[in-house]
Amino acid sequence: MTPFIALLARDLRLSVREGGGAALALVFFALVATLVPLGVGSDLALLAKVGSGVLWVGAALAALLSLDRLFQADYEDGSLDLIALSPLSLEGTAAAKILAHWLSIGLPLTLFSPILSVFFGLSAPAVMALTLSLAIGTPAVSAMGAILASLTLSVRRGGLILPLLVLPLLVPVVIFGAGMAVEVQTGLANGAPRFLLAFSLATTLLSPFVTAMAVRLNLAG
Amino acid sequence: MISSLTAEKLAVQRGSRRLAENLSFTVKAGQALALEGANGSGKTSLLRLIAGFLPAVAGKVTVTQDGKEISEPEERGRFIGWLGHHDALKASFTVSEQLTFFGKLYGGSGDRVALLEQVGLARQAELPCRYLSAGQRRRLALARLVLSRRPLWLLDEPFAALDVAGKGLVARLIALHCGDGGIVVAATHEELGLGNEVLKL
Fold first, then answer.
1. Going by DSSP bridges, is the β-strand pair B197-200/B80-83 parallel, antiparallel, or unpaired?
2. What pLDDT digit, counting tens, does each position of A24-53 carry?
3. Domains of chain B, with CATH numbers?
4. Which of these, A163, A109, A118, lies nearest to A136 by C-alpha position?
5. Would the CB atoms of B92 and A18 count as touching at under 8 Å?
6. Could you give the CA distance from residue A92 to residue A116 in angstroms, rounded to a whole number?
7. Where are the domains of chain A?
8. Angle, vertex CA B182, rays to CA B181 and CA B186, nearest 5
């Protein structure tokens, strides 16, 4: 367990020190959430209707900002070789990195979302549902992102194609995530919480294995 | 401790290019092997193959520990201390933070203060790595290698960027490691100075 904790603590510390971490994601998230009401106008009923969707898209995009550094930085400076030879398996390495990404990005975004939902006049129950959906769904964003970050880790400027690859795969998370708040607003059960939970669990559990495979391939390249 | 490293009829390949073929050698505990060859002759690739990063397209690499032969790449990786040509340092981490992290990751314990003293970085312990010179970064990478407490050292150009004293330090560390029954395989253009075997690629 110690190597796992050591890697987790290091990645968290790096995300705070080397920029591109929580602060950047939160500011980006806040800017998106501020710009949309300015563009859409002051129709509060309309804003409340689109609010959960806009906040989910904003959170997903914000989480992608730092994704390209997840493995690439360690690959370029040779750290990944040393980590691969450590007692921690590559699967454990992937899990530590996904957890670190979620703790430094997904969790702060989730906790920040109730404040931003003020811009959209969401009702208290809808805000609760939205926050809960982010708590359930953001791990899937980190986990899905890790798979593609590891696949593109040796691609120069891979950071540019990464969002193009990740975003289509995040469609279910955004639909069901925003759907949880919509369910509360409309009072019509749509099954979103269950689908979101299932998708998030499956992605998060499988991702370390797929990610480890991709890292292995890239180290051999 | 491991008793030997053996390569049998190894072929080194990068992409579709075959760099070397039919390489066979044995390095016993306490011995060092220098890999020599022109730039691009496959020294680094051979080291990466021994480390288990590159798959062996032909032949196999075996580490023998207590009479048990281990050739599965990831299992073999647990014996390896790696000094690549990148220094693997984070600009915002201080010298001692860097060592502490790798110490925990590798489960290696050891006196970090004495280690920094040994590689001549005692005064820089609290300095972020971005302020280190290329030679100092190399010294820190060497300290990390010693800290890993791995029996089989794979060194890629260990003398690169080091001053005369630094080169002496590398030679001393290699001699100490071999003296403790370790194995060293180093890709280098300079003499290791141990009366070691040389493999020409």
1. unpaired
2. 899 999 999 999 999 998 888 999 999 999
3. 4-200 (3.40.50.300)
4. A109
5. yes
6. 35
7. 2-220
8. 140
Q: Given the structure tokens 């691609």, which residue do they identify?
A: A155
Q: Which of A14, A82, A90 to mutate to test the interface with B (most CBs of B within 10 A)?
A: A82
**A14 contacts in chain B (CB < 8 Å):** 90, 92-93
CB B93 within 8 A of CB B101: yes
Q: For residue B160, which residues of chain A lie inside 8 Å, CB to CB?
A: none
For residue range B10-48, list pLDDT tens digits in order.
888 887 888 888 889 999 999 999 999 888 888 999 999
Q: Is B106 on the interface with A (CB under 8 A)?
A: yes
Confidence of residue A1 (pLDDT cuts 50, 70, 90): low
Structure tokens at B98: 């860097």
User: For B50, how many CA atoms within 13 A lie in the half-sphere containing its CB?
Assistant: 34
pTM for the model stands at: 0.93
A3 to B105: CB separation less than 8 angstroms, yes or no: yes
